[in-house]
Write the structure tokens for this entry.
Amino acid sequence: MANRNKSDELSFANKELASQNNEKEKWAQELVIANRELDIANKELAFQNEVKEKRAAELVIANRELAFQNEEKEKRAAELVIANKELAFQNKEKEKRAAELVIANKELAFQNEEKEKRAAELVIANRELKHAEDDIRKLNDELEQKVIERTAQLESANKELESFSYSVSHDLRSPIRAINGYAKILEEDYSDKLDSDGKKTLDSIMHNSKKMGQLIDDLLAFSKLGRKQVTVSEINMTDLVRTVIDELLFEDDENTPEFKINVLSPAKGDQSLIKQVLINLISNAIKYSKYKPETYIEIGSDVKDKLVFYYVKDNGAGFDMEYYDKLFGVFQRLHSQEEFEGTGIGLAIVQKIVNRHNGTVWAESVLNEGSCFYFSLPESSFPHNCF
Amino acid sequence: MNYNDVEILFAEDSIDDATLTIRALVKSGFTNKLYHVKDGAEALDFIYCRGMYASRNINEKPKLILLDLKMPKLTGMEVLEKIKSDPNLKSIPIVILTSSNEDPDVQKCYALGANSYIVKPVDSDNFFNAIKEIGMYWVIINQPIH
């Protein structure tokens, strides 16, 4: 009995051991599984760690970024502070300016008032100006009216003058002609009844009436010059002088003058009037040389201060420069009628014609030695129609 | 006087000018052939045989008419115009006598057909000669229309 038990016990123990082995294997397997799971878990953990590390790294970056942003924000805050200060300063400036503007506005308002005042004054001034303009216009109208009236008066005065000239020539000549004619009848029909004094008186009547007729004719010729139309053309003065001399008649007993005619500058003027000037000057030169044994007359032209002038020079009686201002006067004479006959119209006509050409006439003389008469005819001479 | 023998009809209102002119013409031999009228109206009466000249033969025309310009009633120019616009009379020579060379009517006279225009000279010798020559030329030398 004890052995059998022991074998039973051993078998049992074996069975027990085998079961235990099974169990152990089961556990080993379970362990393998658990290990596997653990491994997986570990791997998972490793992965998670990696993720976490990544995130940590990211966080670090994020933190850095954040820090940078913070810095930026601080910077900006500082800038803002500065900007605020600036703004505050600007605000103060603006307030200052606003205050100034208020003052300026007041000033402006004042100025506006002033301007309105002035505008009002200007309105008044304008009205006054308007009145003044009206007055001026009125005055102008009146002036124009007056000019028209004066022109009409002048025209009528001119007509009157013309009819006066006509009247002078017509009505004054008639009685003179009658006096002369009746004196002539006395002379022709009754001279045997007159003694020598009576005949002398008759001669004087005839001589004076003749002279009166001459004076009337001269005066008319002179006044006619003022009305004559002036026609300006180019004048060959040398030719004109030659023509004038050729046309002059020389009495046999006269000492025939010796002429020296220089080449004369051409002139612009009224040929017939300028011819009259030359006729009068040359005739005078001849007339006032009649007591000289020889008559020498020089005619020429010259230029002085851009002014062309002509001259007629003689070696005749000359005149006293003391009476120069009378030389060109109408009916003014510097010599007696007995010495040199004439009415005293010649030089007045010369002056009138030259003046009508805008020119000047003048003379130089030494008594008993001769005279020189000059006249200028400006290049741009436009004749005066009234003088 | 026989109005039909008149060779020179002379119209002049001034007694003095008429006296002197007539004297000059008479002295030159036109004594009996000269007739003097005192204004333009009388000159036309003579020419047209009117009024106191009604008996005159209208066909006997003067050889010359001397007309003063300034005359009463009708002026010399009016007489001139009348005669020169009449076809029967316009061949009669008409000489205008005037005192003035200033007369504004010279051109008008010629335009109206005056044959000559004479300014009476102041000097009596010249006056005499002028009148004598007018008479000589127009009455004796000039050949009228027959």
Observations:
- Residues 25 and 31 of chain B are 7 Å apart (CA to CA).
- The helical segments of chain B are 15-27, 40-47, 76-84, 106-112, 124-141.
- The interface with chain A takes residues 14, 16-17, 19-20, 23, 70, 98-104, 120-125, 127-128 of chain B (CB under 8 Å).
